[in-house]
Amino acid sequence: MKIIYFSQTGNTEKMANLILQGIESEGKKAELIEVSSASIDDVINEEIIILGCSAYGSEELDDSEMEPFVESLARKIQGKKVALFGSWGWGNGEWMTEWEKRMESYGAILISEGLTVQESPEGEDEDRCISFGKLIAK
């Protein structure tokens, strides 16, 4: 499993680490990769791909790094299990709904609804991230 993420403020990175903790608690392994270091090769041979990005602008993916990477998956992710997560500071989470639809249009099989956290995961949100990792690992 690969957890590929973009995090500008550290909130999504914290989510990625908590999701990893949940995966590892189920006896599975995953690798954290910042999207700036990721390549299509990180996706091709994986059964499960976990993608994380915070909401930007008018509720959209970061267009400097994450958007180009997600676009590169269009013909490579068909039939793969995918989980999405990210943090946001404003809006109503529409960016995650749009991202889910987009990944399904690429032929990805979503493991569950995308996990979103407003701002930094604390308390109950930390538990939600760990539980999300456990769900992915099953």
Automatic annotation (TrEMBL):
InterPro entries: Flav_short, Flavodoxin/NO_synth, Flavodoxin_CS, Flavoprotein-like_sf. Keywords: Electron transport, Flavoprotein, FMN, Transport. Its cofactor is FMN. Residues 1-137 form the Flavodoxin-like domain. GO terms for molecular function: electron transfer activity; FMN binding; oxidoreductase activity, acting on NAD(P)H. PROSITE patterns: FLAVODOXIN (PS00201), FLAVODOXIN_LIKE (PS50902). Coiled coil: none annotated. Signal peptide: none annotated. PANTHER family: ANAEROBIC NITRIC OXIDE REDUCTASE FLAVORUBREDOXIN. Low-potential electron donor to a number of redox enzymes. Belongs to the flavodoxin family. This is Flavodoxin. It comes from Clostridium chromiireducens.
